[in-house]
Write a structure and sequence with these properties.
The chain has 76 residues and is mostly helical. It has one helix spanning 18-58, and strands at residues 3-6, 9-12.
Length: 76
C-alpha cells in the first residue's frame, strides 16, 4: 500500500481516482521543474557575478566584493 500525504492527511494511492492521480503527477512534475529552474537561476546568477567582476578587472576598476549584489552593475 502506497500512501501520499496531502494537507497533513495520508491517503492510500490505490483508492484515489485517476483524475486525482493525474493531478498529483502534474503537481510533482511542476515541483521538479521549479527545482530545476531555481538551480539553473542560481548557476546563472553566479556566472553573472563572475562576469561582472571580470568586467571590472578588465576596465581597471576595483572588483565587486563577493557580498555585493551583481545586479548593482547595470549595462546600457
Amino acid at each position: 500500500m502506497t500512501t501520499i500525504k496531502i494537507d497533513e492527511k495520508d491517503y492510500d494511492l490505490d483508492t484515489l481516482s485517476e483524475e486525482t492521480k493525474a493531478q498529483i503527477l502534474s503537481i510533482q512534475f511542476v515541483d521538479a521543474e521549479l527545482q530545476r529552474l531555481q538551480a539553473q537561476a542560481a548557476v546563472l546568477q553566479t556566472a553573472r557575478a563572475s562576469y561582472s567582476r571580470a568586467l571590472q578587472e578588465a576596465m581597471g576598476t576595483t572588483p565587486v566584493p563577493p557580498a555585493v549584489d551583481a545586479e548593482a552593475i547595470k549595462l546600457g
